[in-house]
Design goal:
By secondary structure, the protein is of the alpha/beta class. It has a domain at 3-88 and 156-233: P-loop containing nucleotide triphosphate hydrolases (Rossmann fold, 3-Layer(aba) Sandwich), CATH 3.40.50.300. The chain has helices spanning 41-49, 71-77, 94-102, 109-122, 124-128, 139-151, 169-182, 196-201, 219-223, 226-233, and strands at 3-12, 15-25, 30-34, 54-61, 64-65, 79-82, 157-161, 187-192, 204-209, 212-217. Strands 6-7-8-3-9-10 form a six-stranded mixed sheet, with helices on both faces. Strands 2-1-4-5 form a four-stranded antiparallel sheet, covered by helices on one side. The longest helix has 14 residues, at 109-122.
Length: 235
């Protein structure tokens, strides 16, 4: 089991956001976490990444208890988060942004170049924009850059926080194809409000309501559930 979460509680100050979440992510899975705005999806990922402390409960990653492990150590161990918002260093070039990601694992300048070349094969548009300032990229390109930089750290589990946010439908479809390609070698935990990526990519979907998991199962079962249909399609 790659990632095991038991009775996880977390929040901000005295406000509890997630309440006793149990979640298991097996190696090779793409698990999508669905939920409307403000139900605790991002808090869950931030807590798993070590950016938000757990109030109680346990997080185990590849057999080790990492509940109190610092965020940078979790990255080194292979648990990597791409936060929402297409984050990059806007004044730096695409290539320079990728260099920062490569340094986590690269052993030499040549190794850095080789690793970047490999990730550009996955994101050819970034190769075309390699000398362009990251701040001038489109929203879809910035999202690709954020994911590419994370892939350079060689994650065992890649966590994506609302990667489709603010993107046009055609770009979301392209992003879903890329996520499927990444999933051939990497376990993925993706948080979304948009149904496109979960329906195309997920092997399993869980739904969070009011800080707790209310539903889980195969994409067909979850996406046909009356509660999900009503919440997301208004039917």
């Amino acid at each position: 089991m790659s990632l095991v979460v038991k009775q996880l509680v977390a929040g901000y100050g005295e406000r509890t956001i997630i309440h006793g979440i149990d979640l298991e992510v097996e190696q090779g899975e793409v698990v999508a976490v669905l939920g409307t705005n403000g139900v605790g999806k991002s808090t869950l990922l931030r807590t798993l990444a070590g950016l938000q402390p757990a109030t109680s409960g346990q997080i185990r990653f590849e057999g080790r208890d990492i509940t109190r492990t610092r965020a940078h150590r979790r990255v080194q161990q292979g648990l990597v988060l791409v936060p929402e918002g297409q984050q990059s260093f806007p004044a730096m070039s695409v290539f320079e942004n990728l260099e920062l990601g490569a340094r986590v694992r690269a052993k030499s300048a040549t190794d850095t170049t080789d690793r970047i070349a490999a990730v550009i094969d996955l994101f050819p548009r970034l190769g075309e924009r390699r000398n362009q300032a990251a701040g001038t990229l489109s929203g879809g390109e910035r999202q690709m850059l954020a994911i590419a930089r994370a892939m350079l750290t060689e994650p065992s589990v890649l966590m994506l926080d609302e990667p489709s946010q603010g993107l046009a439908p055609i770009i979301i479809d392209q992003l879903a194809e890329t996520i499927n390609e990444i999933a051939r070698t990497t376990t993925i935990l993706v948080v979304e409000q948009n149904l496109t990526i979960p329906s195309i990519c997920a092997s399993r979907i869980v739904v969070i309501e009011e800080g707790a998991i209310s539903l889980g199962g195969s994409p067909d079962a979850v996406l046909s559930d009356d509660r999900v249909v009503h919440a997301y399609l208004g039917i």
